[in-house]
Amino acid sequence: MAVDPKLQSELQKQGVFVMPVEFLYNWSRKSSVWPVQFGLACCAIEMIAAAAARHDIARFGAEVFRASPRQADLMIVSGTVTKKMAPQVVRLYNQMPEPKYVIAMGACAISGGPFKDGYNVLKGVDRFIPVDVHIPGCPPRPEALLHALMTLQEKISKQHLNETRWYDKDAPAEYPVPQCGAHDLEPPVNPEVWDLPKK
Amino acid sequence: MIPTVEQIRELLSAKSPALLVDGGELLAVAKFLKNDPQLQFDFCSCVTAVDYIKQDCIEVVYHLYSVALKHGPLALKVRAPRALEQCRVPSLTPVWRGCEYQEREAFDLFGVKFDGHSDLRRILMWDEFVVHPMRKDYVPPMDYEWEPTPHGETLTRAKAQGGIVPASALEAKK
Amino acid sequence: MSATGIIETQTLEVSLGPQHPSTHGVFRMDVVLDGEYVVKLKPVMGYLHRNHEQIGEKIAWLANMPYTDRLDYFCSMTNNWAYALAVEKMAGIKVPERAEYIRVIMAELTRLLNHACGIGFLLSDCGAWFTPVLYGLRERELILDFFETVSGARMMCNYMRFGGVRVDLDDQMLAMARNIVARWPKFLDEFEKLMTENEVLLARTQRVGILPRELAINASISGPMARASGVEYDIRKVDKYGVYDRFDFRVPVGETGDVFDRFMIRILEMREAVKILEQALSDIPAGPFIAPEVKLRNFKVPAGDGYGRIEAPKGELGFYLVSEGGTKAYRYHVRPPSFINLTILEDMCLGHKVADAVIILGSVDIVLGEVDR
């Protein structure tokens, strides 16, 4: 329900601000996205460079990289996810409290990247967990990570309270953790998360 | 047969000095190379294995340098048969401690067992993994994403498996 | 190590990693603790094993150059040089002088940025949360700008070729490099004024994680870690690869082999690298930047095997290559310094508190792309 703009500006002059609850909820969430400290490989160095003084990520509210996943709401998967590491990635994702988001940074996290031929490389982290923003590049520049953070902020600001995933009773609360098997992960992919494109 | 100091000296002046030793004498030759005061190969720089599938052997190569006398490298090579049960060589970890992790890696990726190693288990792959991936006859699991333009090896393997989409995803969709 | 011998206590098994703020990447240490003291420590690696060596067997010789960038992802230029050196040794290619000087400039700049970040992260582990890293990263950004101007990429430069380098350095780029080198002593003086006499740093790092000299040689430790233990071995002086024998520089060697020695060795090596850079930037000759007789298309290496190594900022980086005379390697093996420097991690950490184990790992200066390949 939109507020009449003339009424809004009159009230603003009095120091009274009128807005939908959703706007306030989304604005406060997107302005302080706290990433979990989770650097895997080369992209992690660009992530640290984005947090350093030149490309300051603190301007966007995301400077506090929490060590514990229980206190974070964004997981930046920066680097190659190997099959040995995949169970830990899913466990960390499960440990994060909702609302939570995932940014797949770099070609390796999106699809396996230059190491796609690998027997130990997971061909994209979105085989097991849902991803919100993908950043191409090898490694992407720190400015690209900041752009991805801004895209995520726009995505958050457009979310409606009654349509989000974590308020849906049927959506899974926890994603199943794969086990390391004799030749490959078991299961090699989570079919509810990753689906083949329709031909 | 342990070589003499003069033979080693002559070898060191060649372009790529290498010494091929039998498995039974490896430990004795290694101790000689390390302890002899004129050679003093006290630094074992690189340990690796090579799979010569056509000659049906796996060759383990040790590159040795000397910190005290500043000469090297000397490649010490030993061969073992490819079959998994007979693929054994004596471990040189008691002589040079630096071989410890590299021998574990050769075991993990090639299946070479080192007798006398204090802790021979997998180092890079997970413990439940059964095969040895760097061998030339290893076939990786087919878990490619759907490829719009498959070519080369991917296409051959996909056709052999009856489809370009990975079988695991086909299984899940049933 | 328990406080009293009368009360029965139990040991506690803790897994530090693979996601941990202090493990410098996805590295896991299974420690068994008696109170706070480390009784046993087993490193677990392989969480970033991207089968780099198998890829090296499938693609052409030159196509493997971008993959070497991703080994030690801080120092891509020295990785490229080690690989190019190994191939040039096997193929018998002679590199022109200007290319050798350019390679030395790139390698020493890489050494500067690696050590600046390395000690920054070590101090961050000591508790000075992120401030020293910011100082180091500030200077690193200037060097990355230079790398981007020269090769087109900040980190994964892919700059060396067999027989030389990809692009020549013009006067503007040389002026940029001179600017960076001129700033560096001031940064080091500021850093040392803040850090080297700092009480907290001295109390936390002296007599911690001592590595004896004999064990260092026997365990194949190389690089600043070995030199801090008194091993006077620098591959730049021993093998004299490139044109290093033309430069006048010292090799700093430590005495005790504790964490403080490793910290000071890295600062002294940065000062020596600045000296080498000043000499190289003023003496660089004109000439071709790549050997003109090398044809990089369908490049073949004669059959045989060879081992080429350089003094990378983290230690001895070597490549063992076996060729059958074709366009691809038959066996391609990387000798990673970080992997082998971890052999004696348990020896250094026994008897220390778990907080010291974190600092000792920081002083080894590992990077997981190299440990796991």
Q: Would you kindly provide a written description of the structure presented here, covering whatever features stand out?
A:
The complex is a heterotrimer of chains A (199), B (174) and C (373). Chain A has 199 residues and is α/β, with parallel strands linked by helices. Chain A is 31% helix and 10% strand. The longest helix of chain A has 16 residues, at 142-157. The N and C termini of chain A lie far apart (41 Å). The model of chain A has no long low-confidence stretch (mean pLDDT 86). Chain B is 26% helix and 21% strand. In chain B, β5 (88-90), α3 (99-110) and β6 form a beta-alpha-beta unit. The longest helix of chain B has 12 residues, at 99-110. The model of chain B has no long low-confidence stretch (mean pLDDT 83). Chain C is an alpha+beta fold and 373 residues long. In chain C, the strands form 3 sheets. In chain C, strands 1-2-3 form a 3-stranded antiparallel sheet. Chain C is globular and about 80 Å long. Classes of the chains: A alpha/beta (199), B alpha/beta (174), C alpha+beta (373). Chains in contact: A-B, A-C, B-C. Chain B binds chain C through residues 16, 18, 42-46, 48, 50-51, 61, 63, 67, 70, 73, 75, 96-102, 122-126, 133-134, and chain C through 45-46, 49, 51, 53-54, 215, 217-222, 231, 233, 238, 304-307, 309, 316, 318, 320, 322, 330-331, 333, 335, 339-340, 342-344, 372.
